[in-house]
């Protein structure tokens, strides 16, 4: 059965990843409250938000597969979201300097044609180099940190801050493609064979 693929995200990185797979899709960003629930498990947060986004956009879509994702950078059980100011971004980078953190991306998929929904999460461990203040300031001056969880983007200049990582690179970009592939297969949609959407 052919269904429209809808990305419930305005993220240019997620859009680029789907385009690189040769997929045709519509973009319909979800406007949902992304506040952390007091006492919420940090690793569970992105999965909850991803499903909330997917269900929100799917509510008025027919014959569609709605895909949503949410990425969180976690250090010391604290969730580092997108910085709201340059000083906040600097504080995040200082906190990540010289140590490891976990990047968790939750993925939610809703098949409106068959009233089914599935979700999964991926975790990647990222290790930062110790950062000099001049390096942090130069990175902030690039403007790159401001729309990214944890105040860095691994696909850009942020790659220069990373010493090594364990796990899925695309997860750190915001969409774990291997997990997504298998999730969609469970909804009879195959990216490789271009079937189901």
Topology at a glance:
Elements: E1 4-7, H1 12-20, E2 26-27, H2 45-58, E3 64-75, E4 78-80, H3 86-96, E5 100-111, E6 116-128, H4 133-141, E7 162-166, H5 169-173, H6 177-185
Parallel strand pairs: 1-2, 1-3
Antiparallel strand pairs: 3-4, 3-5, 5-6, 6-7
Name the beta content range: 25-35%
Total number of helical segments?
Answer: 6
Helix/strand order, N-terminal first = EHEHEEHEEHEHH
User: Biggest sheet: strands, sense, closure?
Assistant: 7 strands, mixed
* Structural class determined from secondary elements: alpha/beta
The termini sit apart by 7 Å
Question: Over the alpha carbons, how many angstroms does the gyration radius reach?
Answer: 17 Å
The share of residues in helices is 25-40%
Poorly predicted spans: none
Q: Estimate the mean pLDDT confidence.
A: 94
Shape: elongated
What is the count of β-strands? 7
Can you characterise this structure?
- The mean pLDDT is 94.
- This protein has 6 helices and 7 strands, in the order E-H-E-H-E-E-H-E-E-H-E-H-H.
- The longest helix is centred in the first third of the chain and has 14 residues.
- Strands 1, 2, 3, 4, 5, 6 and 7 form a 7-stranded mixed sheet that branches.
- It has 197 residues and is of the alpha/beta class.
- It starts with a strand and ends in a 12-residue tail after the last helix.
Key structural traits:
197 residues, alpha/beta, 6 helices, 26% strand, elongated
Describe what is shown at a glance.
29% of the residues lie in helices and 26% in strands. It is built from 6 helices and 7 strands.
